[in-house]
Design a protein that fits this description.
About 40% of the residues lie in helices and about 15% in strands. It is globular and about 55 Å long. It folds into 2 domains: about 180 residues, D-Maltodextrin-Binding Protein, domain 2, CATH 3.40.190; about 160 residues, 3-Layer(aba) Sandwich (D-Maltodextrin-Binding Protein, domain 2), CATH 3.40.190. It starts with 8 loop residues before the first helix and ends with a helix. β1, α2 and β2 form a beta-alpha-beta unit. Strands 4, 5, 6, 7, 8, 9, 10 and 11 form an 8-stranded mixed β-sheet that branches. Strands 2-1-3 form a 3-stranded parallel β-sheet. The chain is α/β, with parallel strands linked by helices and about 375 residues long.
């Protein structure tokens, strides 16, 4: 159960103050977030305690979000894009600076995560981390072992070595439908800088991706969760929390499907999904109240316990389930963290190269 605000009188007073401005607006906050990415009880608690209705829409890739926010007039108050997209949106003037006086629960932010996020948002003026994690791959233990008993299940070779991944084409291989994840992963596998802006290196990564294209059933950023859980596919590049959700659903179903998530030994992307407020948000005070509520340790813990992702709230850790805080796939140890990399947004010229390369990879041209 989500703890009622009445248990936290100081928080109640702070929250009441933070939403005072929102009372002059329509009592609504329009939220745009990834699918399957919040505990609905937290949303209900926010509405019950503030009177602000949450209108909640979902998406499945960053490109959709960026296009809508750059066009303006999206109607959204709070959006949760990934860090490279945040950087581009800041540069384009599509976001408004946060009024931190209206987000007192920022005192609970995890400094180590905030510091990493500042590489995309200097001074942490526009974004507050919601969740963070890694991009690795998930696999069906039995189906992989059946096809390749000595499969290199701790390595990106499972994806990027054509001789390996071809053995799993018959049982289904999905890749995330985003160049922001796959091109850096390919660069890293090639021992190149995963944050490279060099045309020749990006094209080398695309060339590698084209060699495995015949064995990829689908490019997808949402359906792979259920596809893994149901045993419909046997291998997928995905976000840590998504694959762990798939593993949990498979276990609950009791159909004998076992899913394992891997942070490859060669390293993997560390990503951050953060709360931001569009520059033309219709209800900015309600947006600040919503972000502040979500930064309560109780809220952050409830969401992590629901989605099985690590969050950016340090104080929430004592409230996490043991199979969340104790799982190194969610909260990895320092040795693993040392091989995680981050990427930055591309300048427009490079972004065009990346977009064109990804289009060619997907089309097989």
């Amino acid at each position: 159960m989500f703890a009622p605000l009445s248990r936290y009188p100081l928080a109640a007073a702070v929250l009441a103050a933070s939403i005072a401005g929102a009372l002059a607006e329509d009592k609504v906050v329009n939220v745009y977030n990834w699918s399957d990415y919040v505990d609905e009880e937290v949303l209900a608690a926010f509405t019950a305690e503030t009177g602000i209705e949450v209108v909640y829409d979902v998406y499945d890739n960053n490109e959709i979000v960026e296009t809508k926010l750059l066009a303006g007039g999206s109607g959204y108050d709070v959006v949760v894009p990934s860090a490279p997209n945040v950087a581009r949106l800041i540069q384009a003037g599509a976001l408004q600076k946060l009024d931190k006086s209206k987000i007192p629960n920022l005192v609970h932010a995890w400094e180590a995560i905030t510091a990493r996020l500042s590489g995309y948002d200097p001074g942490n003026e526009y974004a507050v981390d919601y969740m963070w994690g890694t991009t690795g791959f998930g696999y069906n233990v039995a189906k992989i072992a059946e096809r390749m008993p000595d499969a290199p299940v701790d390595s990106w070779a499972m994806i990027f070595d054509p001789e390996v991944v071809s053995k799993f084409a018959d049982c289904g291989v999905y890749l995330l439908d985003t160049p922001e994840e796959l091109i850096p992963a390919a660069l890293n596998y090639l021992h190149l800088n995963p944050d490279s802006k060099e045309t020749a290196e990006i094209e080398e990564a695309a060339k590698l991706l084209k060699t495995i294209r015949p064995y990829i059933e689908k490019f997808d950023s949402s359906e792979y969760i259920n596809a893994l859980a149901n045993g419909d596919i046997c291998l997928a590049v995905g976000y840590s929390g998504d694959v762990l959700q798939a593993a949990d659903r498979a276990a609950e179903a009791g159909a004998g499907v076992e899913i394992q998530y891997v942070i490859p030994t060669e390293g993997a992307a560390m990503w951050f999904d953060s709360f931001i407020i569009p520059s033309d948000a219709p209800h900015p005070d309600a947006a600040h109240a919503f972000i502040d509520f979500m930064m309560r340790p109780e809220s952050a813990a409830a969401n992590s316990n629901y989605v099985y992702y690590a969050n950016g709230n340090l104080e929430s850790q004592s409230l996490l389930y043991e199979d969340v805080i104790g799982d190194p796939a969610i909260y990895p140890g320092q040795q693993t963290i040392d091989v995680l990399y981050t990427t930055t947004s591309h300048p427009p010229r490079v972004q065009r190269i990346v977009t064109r390369a990804w289009t060619n990879v997907k089309s097989g041209s």
